[in-house]
Amino acid sequence: MSLETYKLLASSLFKRDGKSKIEQVPSIADMRLMAKRNVPKMIFDFVDGGAGHEITLRHNESDFQRVFFNPRSLVDVSKQDPSAHFCGRDFPLPIILGPAGLVRVVGNKGEVSAVKSAGKRGLVYTISTSSSYSIEDIKQVAQGPLWFQLYLWRNKEIVDGLIERAAKAECDAIVLTIDVPLNANRLRDLRNGMSIPPKITFRNAFEAMTKPRWLMDITSGDPIGFRNFVGIAEGNSALSHSEFINKELSNLSATWEDLKKLRERWPKKLYIKGILTVEDALDAVNCGVDGIIVSNHGGRQLDSTKSAVSCLPALKAAVGDRCEIFLDGGIRSGVDVIKALCMGADAVTLGRSWVWGVAAGGEKGVDRVIDIYQEEIRQTMILLGVSNLSELNEKMITLPAEWQP
Question: Of 64, 136, 126, nearest to 273 (Cα)?
């Protein structure tokens, strides 16, 4: 068999109608399964898992199934406009690529693949403080808008330094995460013996060897670490950086006064992530934030908190139009996006979905993730009987009685 014949045969196995395998992935659930096949179990569980017994993690997704549509028919929906307005500008879709740390552990260039994909579509990419690429590295490859995710750490000089770097990188907003005074136990990671950076041990060596492409990918280049701390923390690996964070930065004494000081320090948009109660939402608004992100950290912090989506109606009723409101957690389809917008969200943030895309196919994987959401958003708009997202409202859905504000 000639080389050209072999290439043609191989191409036919992985393409249909001119599309690659990754371009044919039909849903986010299928993207998750493709990601699972591409990386060792310990890496997949690191991304996929939650805190404790994963009660909150499961409800983040399943509670969307308790929300039902009230569609209208015989409405002209020949044109659909899925664009959204937030952060002072228009965006082609009501989705934000939210912060995720150390994505390089899944291979395929990690965060770089995601920021390039988001930029091509004009969507926000949120740089994580725990990114495996520095703020400056991300800025260098970014083609679209950037936000920066921050923690109120104990060392004010380090926090101020990160804020200055975010400003130099022209980030449009800071996303302050408030629900991580310390890291919760993630039982999957403990059972798997997961470490950062991943270590090949007798326990996981066989499985790692069955993923040679992943293994070669993560062992090439610089050591995996929190690159925003290079030159600040001793050492050059995620392990040394993690020890530095735990010993020097973890802050159990942060208060709303610290948020007020950050508001004075940062002139652009300020969003606060980790809001679940009306009391916290009102305190945040009174501190002058521009928006709240309804989130339980994807079920990765305090287990047995309520799902993010179940908290949204009461929070929207409490803050009204005093600030923007975003939903984070369990959003696995365009249907979920539309439900969130009907409940009053201005947009949603995605986490695991885009990381699965990176693990499944790098930049093209994230491209497909965004495509899936866009296709499903448009289809849901048509079937619901709306042509513009501004038409969505609470009358178009039926909520569980206990969610009512």
Answer: 126
Give CATH superfamily name and number for 23-397. Aldolase class I (3.20.20.70)
The string of DSSP letters for 229-273 reads GBTTBSSSSHHHHHHHIIIII--S---HHHHHHHHHH--SEEEEE
Interior angle at CA 318, CA 317 and CA 324, nearest 5: 85
- Closest to 85 in 3D by CA, of 295, 342, 389: 389
**pLDDT tens digits for range 55-64:** 999 999 999 9
Asked, as a colleague might, if the bond just before 197 is cis with ω within 30 of 0, I would say: yes
The DSSP letter of residue 103 is G
Task: Kindly list the domain boundaries of the chain, sorted by start residue.
Answer: 23-397
* Phi/psi at 126 (5° precision): -100, 115
The per-residue pLDDT for range 248-282, each reduced to its tens digit, is 667 889 999 999 999 999 999 999 999 999 999 99
Catalytic residues: 297
- Token representation of residue 387: 């042509």
Residues in Cβ contact with 78 at an 8 Å cutoff, skipping those fewer than 6 apart: 387
Q: Quick one: residue 222, left, alpha or beta (phi over 0 = left, psi -120 to 50 = alpha)?
A: beta
Q: What is the pLDDT of residue 225?
A: 84
Alpha carbons 188 and 183: distance in angstroms, whole number? 14
